[in-house]
Every structure is written in C-alpha cells, then in structure tokens.
Amino acid sequence: MGTLLLNPIAFSIGGLNVHWYGLILGSAALVGLLLAIWEGKRFNLPQDFFMDLLLLGVPSAIIGARIYYVAFMWDDYKNNLIDIFKIWNGGIAIYGALIGAIICAVLFTRRRGYSFWRIADICAPSLIAGQLIGRWGNFVNQEAYGGPTTEGFLRDYLHLPNFIVNQMNVEGVYHHPTFLYESVWNLVGLVILFILRRQKFLRAGELFFSYFIWYSIGRFFIEALRTDSLAFQGASWLAGLIDGMWAPMTWLGFEQGYLAPSYGNVRISQLLAIFFVIAAVAMIIVRRRTISGLPHYADPIVSTRTKEIEGLSSASAQEPSDLPAKETATSRSADKIDAPEEPEAHEDPKGPESK
To answer: 216: buried, middle or exposed (CB in 10 Å: 19+, 13-18, 0-12)?
Structure first.
C-alpha cells in the first residue's frame, strides 16, 4: 500500500484501535438488518427472528470468508498460523462469506420451521445492500483496487470526486477504483430487487436467485480489473474463453489488471460468477417445472413450528369443553346414588300408625 490520505483508524479507546473498516462493515450489517425487518413486517415475521439470524450469520460469514481466502492462499499462512486470525489486515473473500452465511441460514431457518427460500428472498436486498456499503471499507484501507490507470481517466472520463481520485493514488500510481464500480453496480441491483419483489409473477426463491445473477454478472467484469485476484492454473481454452467473454470491457476503455503467473491464469471469482449465473437460471427453470404449487413471493410465510403450536393449542382448547359434560353426567350419577328413596305409590301415606 502507498501513503494513505485517509487514516484507516477511526479512533482509539485506550490501546484499542477502532478501524473504519470494522465500522463500515458494522454499518452494512445494520442496514441489512433494517431492510430485512422492514420487509418482514409485510409477512408478520418477528423482528427477533432477523436479529438472531444476523447475530449468527455475521460470524458465520466472516469465518467462511476467511477460510475461503486462506484456503487459496495457504502458502502465505502455513508457516505463520497466527496471521490467519488477523482479518483486520484484509484477506476475506465475498463468495466465502456468502457460503458461510447460507449454511448458517439453512440451519437456522430449518430450526425455526421456516422455508429457507422464503427467508432468503427477504434477505436478498439486505445482502446486496451490505455489499455496496462494505466495499467502502476497501476504499479506506486502499485495497482491492484495480490495475493502473491515469489521473485523466478518473477525473475527466469518469468524473470522480477528488477524495476518490486521490485515494486511488497508490505509491504514485493511479488505480481503478473497483470498490466503487462494484458499489454502484450493487446499488442498481438493489433498486432492481426492490422492483422485482413487487411483481406478481415472482415465485419463492427467485428474488434470491436474481440477486446471485445480478451480482455475479457485475463481479465477472469487475474482477478482471483487480490485481489481487485469487487464481489457479487452468486449461488454456478455459482462460481464453473467460478472456473472450470479458472483451467488451475493452470497448469502454478498460484493461485487465495484472495477474501474476505464479497465481495462475484463471481468476476463481470469475469462474464462480459464471457458475452462479448458470446455476441460478437453471434453478429457476427447474423449480418452476418440477415443483407443483410453488408459492409466489407475496404468499404468506408460516412457520411449521407455529402450526404445531397452534395445533396443540386447539387440542387443549377442546378438552375443557368436554369436561363440564362429563362432570355433569358424573354428578347426576352421584346424586342418584345418594338421594333417599321415595315411597312406593301403593304404600299407605299415613304409615303404620294409622292401622
């Protein structure tokens, strides 16, 4: 990194430094939570549900993101394992975060009795909103930037403000602000998701798949601009195919960022982006064709646990209604047993003394 114009440390409490990176990620998580709660009210989902999901999902996402990054950069960590835990120095991968968060959400929603796809739909805008905010943490840290460019390209072609242009000057060389490209792409995606979820044709799970399609398309083109991509050595035809798919970016004046040959020739995030787009489109088609009665997005969301509780409550409510009848029958039987016998009709009412 070069000389930072922005201090990555927001403030200090005693010997503890609070970084802007952490504050920005915290803000991203909070905005995502508020968006989920807001939409959850439409389906009468409790706020506590989303708060619990966030408390479990964020650590799961961080762990997943770190494991993903370390797995592909193992040579840098195998001799100094303590560095694995220093996430404040950077080194997390968004796809790893998504994998960690999804695994947590699947387990959590199943435990609460909700359909994962219905909850994933509600959380899709939260995910993309969190990403568009979180990328500004990379800006403050002066990391995850793209390849070299010119000051004129940033100022005159893109018309970026000074504080962004200056921060993209790394050791005297200007770089593409890939954090900004992705943040803007995600902002547009957020608006699209807001519009889609009000459409009557949308089925359960499809807003979540739409998020993956939109994000992955943008990530495919933006990833090639970066100089810190995780990569592997793939077949030459695969590398050529990906480069050919990225070629339209050159028409807009962009060039791919340098990728060290020791890393490989195929960027992992680009390959995953292609996979996620294909998989998401396939899932939408297959689920519509194979699942009968696939609920729409706007259909009510009910927990199976809630149904079980309501069933038990109904059963309990019916038992007391039978109780008075049983008690009345029993009382009548008791009264009949304890009551004195009435004189028979043929006896003389004056009794023995009258004789």
So the answer is: buried
